[in-house]
TrEMBL record:
Domain of life: Eukaryota
Protein name (record): Extracellular metalloproteinase
InterPro entries referenced in this protein's UniProt entry, alphabetically: Fungal_virulence_M36, Peptidase_M36, Peptidase_M4/M1_CTD_sf
Keyword Hydrolase attributed: yes
Organism, scientific name: Pholiota conissans
Binding-site list for Zn(2+): H403, H407, E432
EC number: 3.4.24.-
Amino acid sequence: MTSFSKLLKSALLAVAFSAFGAASPVDHPTRRSFTIGANLQIEAFHPLSTFETFGAGIDHPLSKRSKFDLKSAAISFVGSHLSKSASSVAFKSGFSGEVSDHAFLAQMHDGIPFANAVANVAFNKDNKVVTFGSSFVNPSKSFASTTPSISVESAISIAEKALDGTFNNHPPTIEFFAKPDNTAVLTHVVQIQNDATGAWFEAFVDAHSGELVSVTDFVTRASYLVLPMQEEILTQGFQTLVDPADLTASPLGWHSTGTTNTTHFETSRGNNAISFKGAQTATTSESSDALNFIFKQDPTLAPTVQVNLDAARTNAFYVVNTMHDLTYKYGFTEASFNFQNNNFGKGGVGNDQVTISVQDSAGTNNADFATPADGQSGRMRMFLWTFTSPQRDGALENDIVTHEMTHGVTNRMTGGGTGRCLQTTEAGGMGEGWSDTMAFWNEQTSTATPDFILGQYVENNTVGIRTHPYSTNPAVNPLQYSDLQTRTEVHSIGEVWANMLFNVYANLVGIHGFSSNARRDPTTSEGNVVFLHLFIDSLAIQPCNPTFLNARDAWLQADVNRFGGANACALWDAFASRGLGVGAANHTNSFLLPPGCPSS
Ligand SMILES: *[C@@H]1O[C@H](CO)[C@@H](O)[C@H](O)[C@H]1NC(C)=O
Ligand SMILES: *[C@@H]1O[C@H](CO)[C@@H](O)[C@H](O)[C@H]1NC(C)=O
Ligand SMILES: *[C@@H]1O[C@H](CO)[C@@H](O)[C@H](O)[C@H]1NC(C)=O
Ligand SMILES: [Ca+2]
Ligand SMILES: [Zn+2]
């Protein structure tokens, strides 16, 4: 059984490598290579972001104004900090969070924004700048004419042909694109999808030469990486929960998008999510009146029989809504680019509930999540798994659904809702790590923080599918920052990051204890509550396409913003223990703690 499963895993690993392998570990922070079809190789490029954190904060040019205005404060700060004129900086999006306000900006030239030269500024509630990230560029040659010489129609057909898909009618834009040779080209930006393969790209086509310059890949694939429940026993997931919706996060419950509870859908459809098979009309209807969804999965029967299908649609709907409510309470709201159809006038762009396609016919032994920009639905696809007889259903594996949903959270909150800011190999790798992290956070039940072995329901493999369990013991999990020198695939990079965060988690819970009510109440001071605040807070302050160093610094600054830096040494201790200490750089370890932090 073990060797059989290992064999399959390495086959899947190979697939993942060909689709996502980086050119070289040195390029992790700025690139990702894509092989599309038989012979198209595209290297997506993202200028390296700078990232500065300012502790208690620094002034900006408009600090003396009595009234704080996020947009003008951010534009004036970026302009002065980078010596750019106000006309080369545009405000793209922003939101006011519980402990900091966030602005996301783009470099401009002749009134046209750059796609990949962006900046983000965060202000604390004292009107001070606390973080600044920037990938602004100084292109070496003169800019191309801002009048395209090829039409958008031609750009669409070039992109359709190259990417083997179809234009999805999302309105195209014109944006500059900074290239690795330090030039900037004008591009038509068009979205291309392929329903059969699940591909969903944003293509950047040079509006003068017609060259396909780069792509954004909105899809994160689970491939061989599946995150099963620790317990493995499905029946534990089938408690009957009464009214699990959190009415702070989902004011009309989970089944309504209207203005009152009485306009609810009596199906697996609502404001945050819709789960269906095949067509969006094929939802699960309540099993009895008053929104009861009681479908007892029968593991001896095929997943496709009616009761099992209904159990799958119900479970996926439940997990995605639970994740919506949980992350909402910790800061992933309408204004910070979450997934809801009706935003109740609270900011952000609506009409983007998560669509959950269960038992999707496009594949097997996989799952994926596509995160386009705020205002377009997140797309989750769950496949059947063929390792067992009867087959098993990924929608019944809570950790798979949680892992996939977390891709939506991290891709939306990093970089201001564009879906463009976890695209490099290193940033995409941390994306996988955050998704694992949310899975282990959800599974904790006490202060004990045992090693976390990702078991396996869908593959029926108890060994787990990661190379190591997550652990505070370096003999159990030896992964360090320097492993990025040899790890070139996003999921394997994610393991390094998730294990660092596992150690952060263990430190915080060791110091502050554990709250069993953390899902409902984010206001208490236990370690798991503190951890999830820092997790969510750090996403919005880190730069577009962050490196490990940027992300570590964002956690430290998030702790300053919310807790006055009370946990600095606990964070440093965990990061440094895995090589991400004070002097770490360029994938070279440092185990150094800053002065004032005792070594443990
Ligand atoms: C919606 O229904 C829930 C019970 O499911 C109730 O607690 C809540 O007050 C209702 N909200 C409104 C706006 O009617
Ligand atoms: C799962 O694995 C166990 C142990 O190898 C085996 O006994 C069981 O039959 C398997 N279940 C399925 C559904 O394949
Ligand atoms: C970073 O490390 C790689 C080897 O891992 C080396 O080739 C490269 O020159 C280093 N870059 C810097 C700036 O030190
Ligand atoms: Ca939204
Ligand atoms: Zn993933």
